[in-house]
# Entry
Amino acid sequence: MQKTGTVIVGAGLAGLYAAHLLEKRDVTDIVLLEARERLGGRIVSTSPDHPAFPAVEIAGFDLGPSWFWPGFQHQMAELVQTLGLQAFAQFEQGDMLIERSSSMAAQRVQGFVNSPPSMRLVGGMQALTQALYQSLENTSVMFGQPVQALHRAASDLEVHSQDAHGKRHTWHADQVLLAMPPRLAANMAFSPALPAELSSQWQNTPTWMAPHAKYVALFKTPFWRAQGLSGEARSLSGPLGEIHDASMPDGKAALFGFFNTPAATRQRMGNDVLVQECRAQLSRLFGPQAAHPDVDIIKDWAYEPYTTTQDDRHGSSGQHPTAPAIKAQDGVWSGCLIGIGSEWGQQFPGYLAGAIEAASAGVDAILES
# Structure
């Protein structure tokens, strides 16, 4: 039997930050279970030693979330500062392009500059999760442990997982923090069942950006800037509906875009066809040089089993979700099971800052109980 005080399910930003906060408050009996074989959850940045990426120096380009806003997301900004991470503003100088049809020249208009500015991290957002992981001293982090079921026993909680080899594991804990999307949490087996209203709220909370995919194209130089362009574009014809400059402060140049092609269509087309269409679109917008990136990468989140459910794939996730209840108000699950994934953030659900917010609230709740 494996006994611990607190089990955290999910080693994304919320789970890592919750473990970090618990340790800061002298809680040391913590197990963090991660379904994937890596840190980060929805945060993933390119790295040269990753088997999915070419063996070239392309570290730090985000394939998941990229931005935070220190101007109003103060808790997130304080964490970045405390961990000693370097932030820089999203490049937005110059004109942007509007493409209404692939057969017509894009319209060039004055660019839009966010205020307060959108900020990114040197090394990619993965630098944040890595720094939190390295800060942990008394947390056991277990990879490849997807949690399938939770049982409320007489004296504790039983957390059941099964690894890639089919071996089952059980952890006994006093409390559990669910650092995952509410829909994934609702799909686990609970014994006894969760209260119907709570389960319904979790099941009906869309996972932010889950049905979407991101394309990143790397170049030797940000040549579009010499044309007076910001790298930002909007398109009705696609395949990319929204494009931004993804270059690094050290000179590594890139453009990235969000697909406006539905997940099922992307799956039918396949990545090879999608890459060719993305290159053709970049060429239409930014000139022939854009048709030949040094490296291009597609990250499709719609078929990530530890991010996205079938309900997410069929939804639009076009608006940030309304945060559901984080816990049962009464009954056997009250006070011992709390949701802390980003969608549970009351002020910034779905954002990186929402993960920080929800993790902080969850830690406060279990320590108070």
Q: What stands out?
A: The radius of gyration is 21 Å. The chain has ten helices and 17 strands.
